[in-house]
Specification:
alpha+beta, eight-stranded antiparallel β-sheet, 33 strands, 14 helices, GTP-binding, binds guanosine-5'-diphosphate, binds magnesium ion, 601 residues, LepA_IV, six-stranded mixed β-sheet, 34% strand, EC 3.6.5.n1
């Protein structure tokens, strides 16, 4: 096929505006699936996606379509709909020349519509503004066209209208994809170069990669190498995804294909695959992943460590957005510190861990990464630069060496009915937000933007926003980088000894509240001991909150008469086993469950 007849595009939209339904209709019209299967959602493959009704992984489908009696190859890249997965959106977008910007004709522009629109703009993609659900009696296409005009300066005459559910207008959309989106601008005669936009693991064939070919051609059996490695490999698997695999012998620049190099071939997202003679002059890198939330994952029982390790490894290969580092906790044993794009991503990852691998895991409370500037950084071993990223508060460098603290911020976009603006502003200011200028969407809806600390957003911001606006406001955020902040390290002490795993990094305005609630919770959860237990929250040597648990004498055998030796032995054995699961701090025995409860969110 001629490159001029390839179109690479993506459908982007706010969640529930109909991406998956539209993708199904496109698959139907191009003959991939049989019509009538109304809610098939072929591209939403994972069980979690079906259950939660969200798309997690970007999946590609290559479609044949003929227009003016000429055959076209349309590569549809389905993108995830949630803010957490925006990096998957970004990756798919690097292989596209255009996007279908889908907007629910009933709901109108939502926060995520704004985010995906600006992403498409930043990447110089052609935007096909498309209203969906025009079949709904309450749909108001004219009103939404005016919103598109006032927020994005899109001319109403450029807006397409479809009903993905009924199939209305979908042929016209396909024509617009062909006539308005340009073909990929690539050189088919140059050396072969491709970048990897996704990977997954196949039991028998090893790593399979979704690759966008930037230049040259790729043949079955050809020799290739990774940009990051000198070793040569042979192309063992080459296929189009329709979305089921269709083996091919050759692919060329502009195409999105599945490539496998066998069980020892490897492959990771963001890497570049080259023909051995290609010198990689061109920049084909995929934007780096930014982890917004970190949490510890530990096996429920250390005997399951190997099993959990295998599961995490396999899953993280498929979900390249996670970062995994070995971690250990005196209370929870050996585990991992895992970085996620957001809380939903964390939820989905652990749910997949349970569903796909049947592994049980303990998850610690999520925290955002912090950055600190350390004085004399060069003499502190292990830290290479002056700035240290801290993904686990336990690993914060000695505070006496810290010159400045930074925390991650985001630009939050909220689209809300005008009557809730007061409540939304109050929420954002309470979450330490700084307002940016606001914009009217129309006479009923307003777009507010705030610079917010990520730590205030990841917890329950979205839920709170929904509840104060009766579900009518939508929210999305974009990375705004690290900025200086008044942070301190808060330690929890039991009878004067620091409990490492309860150390946290807190903004000064939240300090008193956190100190009081954490010590109070611990007082409730730690069982009485033979000695009095003092629980303290301490910052820089100063005690901010204190609770005391009174001493209590406990002897499990006291109630037994001396004669029953077997019963006595059994009880002592039980007690000894119980002790094994204890974390001991300053001679205070704390059951592992207490730690699981305090550390879990
Ligand atoms: P996604 O989150 O963007 O992938 O949205 P889905 O494709 O899952 O659609 C969300 C909901 O809207 C589903 O219940 C669909 O059946 C429904 N839907 C999608 N397109 C249309 C449409 O054109 N008309 C109507 N009435 N409902 C639609
Ligand atoms: Mg979907």
């Amino acid at each position: 096929i001629d490159v001029k007849r390839i179109r690479n595009f993506s459908i982007v939209a706010h969640v529930d505006h109909g991406k998956s339904t539209l993708a199904d209709r496109l698959l139907e019209i191009t003959g991939v699936i049989k019509p009538g299967n109304e809610n098939a959602q072929v591209l939403d493959q994972l069980q979690v996606e079906r259950e939660r009704g969200i798309t997690v992984k970007a999946v590609t489908a290559s479609l044949n379509y003929s227009y003016n009696n000429e055959p076209y190859l349309l590569n549809l890249i389905d993108t995830p709909g949630h803010v957490d997965f925006s990096n998957e959106v970004v990756r798919s977008v690097t292989a596209c020349q255009g996007v279908v910007l889908l907007v629910d004709a009933n709901e109108g522009i939502q926060a995520q519509t704004v985010a995906v629109h600006s992403l498409a703009k930043r990447n110089d993609l052609v935007i096909l503004p498309t209203l969906n659900k025009v079949d709904l009696p309450r749909a108001d296409p004219e009103k939404v066209k005016n919103q598109l005009k006032s927020v994005f300066k899109i001319e109403p005459s450029d807006v397409l209208q479809v009903s993905a559910k009924k199939g209305w207008g979908v042929e016209e959309l396909l024509k617009a994809i062909i006539t308005r989106i340009p073909p990929p601008n690539v050189d088919t005669t140059d050396h072969f170069r491709a970048h990897i936009i996704d990977t997954w693991h196949d039991k028998y064939r090893g790593v399979l990669c979704l690759a966008y070919i930037h230049s040259g051609t790729l043949k079955m059996g050809q020799t290739v190498k990774w940009k990051s490695d000198v070793k040569q490999h042979t192309v063992k698997y080459l296929a189009l995804l329709r979305p089921s695999e269709e083996s091919i012998t050759e692919a060329m620049a502009g195409q999105v294909v599945m490539v496998g190099l066998g069980t020892k071939g490897g492959g990771s997202v963001g890497d570049t695959l080259l023909s051995p003679e290609a010198t990689d002059g061109k920049d084909t890198t995929v934007p780096a992943v930014r982890h917004m939330v970190y949490a510890g994952i530990f096996p429920a029982d250390q005997s399951q460590h190997t099993q959990l390790s295998d599961s995490i490894k396999k899953l993280s290969l498929n979900d390249s957005a996670v970062s995994v580092a070995v971690d250990s906790s005196p209370a929870l044993g050996q585990g991992w510190r895992v970085g996620f794009l957001g809380l939903l991503h964390l939820d989905v990852f652990t749910q997949r861990l349970l569903q796909e691998y049947k592994a049980e895991a303990i998850l610690t409370a999520p925290s955002v990464p912090y950055k600190v500037k350390v004085k004399g950084a060069k003499i502190i071993k292990h830290y290479k630069g002056e700035d240290v990223i801290v993904t686990n508060p336990m690993q914060l460098p000695d505070v006496s060496n810290i010159v400045e603290y930074y925390e991650p911020f985001v630009i939050g976009t909220i689209i809300s009915p005008v009557e809730y603006i007061g409540a939304v502003n109050t929420l954002c200011i309470d979450r330490r937000g700084n307002p940016l200028p606001s914009n009217a969407v129309d006479d009923q809806m307003t777009m507010l933007q705030y610079i917010l600390p990520l730590s205030e957003v990841v917890m329950d911001f979205h839920d709170t926003l929904k509840s104060i606006t009766s579900g009518f406001a939508s929210f999305d955020y974009q990375d705004y980088g690290f900025h200086p902040s008044s942070l301190v390290k808060m330690d929890i002490l039991l009878n004067g000894v620091i409990v490492d795993e309860l150390t946290s990094i807190v903004h000064i305005s939240r300090l008193e509240y956190n100190a009081r609630t954490l010590t109070a919770r611990l007082k409730e959860m730690i069982p009485r001991q033979m000695v009095q237990v003092a629980i303290q929250a301490v910052v820089g040597g100063k005690v901010l909150a204190r609770e005391t648990i009174k001493a209590y004498r406990k002897d499990v055998t006291a109630k037994l008469y001396g004669g029953d030796i077997t019963r006595r032995k059994k009880l002592l054995k039980q007690q000894a086993e119980g002790k094994k699961k204890m974390r001991s701090v300053a001679n205070i025995k704390i059951p592992r469950n207490t730690f699981i409860d305090v550390l879990k969110r």
